[in-house]
Write a structure and sequence with these properties.
Blueprint: H1 2-45, H2 52-76, H3 84-91, H4 97-132, H5 144-171
Amino acid sequence: MNSDKKLLNITGKVNKLLLSVETFFLASITIFLVAAIFIEVVCRYFLFISVAWAEEITRYLFVWLTYIGSAYALYYGSHTEIDVIKQAINKSTSANKDSLAKLVRFLSIVGTTIFLVAFGKIYYSYMMQIWARTQTSPTMHIPMGLIYLPVFIGVVLSLIHEVCMFVEFFYQKPCSIETNGN
């Protein structure tokens, strides 16, 4: 029992730290994104010039924001979901209603984890091909590996959150104080 609490505690601390780091990066990226868009709007509509670097950095920051935000949203259950099975179970009069709900939750965690592992493995191979090339972005000359990196980082972050969700599922307790109960 003590090792169970220890695993739950360690997983919770790692997950809470990860969520804090993600929150910091999401806020920072949002601030830089707004600043770059503001610069582009001012230059285009008041100075009548186009700032190519602002357009390019905006695109790349949005990609980073999307994939880090996707991992963050995965943990909190904030992605769009099709909950037909959940609704059917909730409306059912079966005595096994709770067991069925737990089974669906377990299968969703397992299915998401399998998808993330498979996608991560395929994308990792692709990333290695990108890093092997010396191609850079057109305006800012950023290595293209950095442009494609947030997808893989998002997958890794999501997998770490999935581990926490497994632990929460098996111990029926949240890993982190910040969970919303989903």
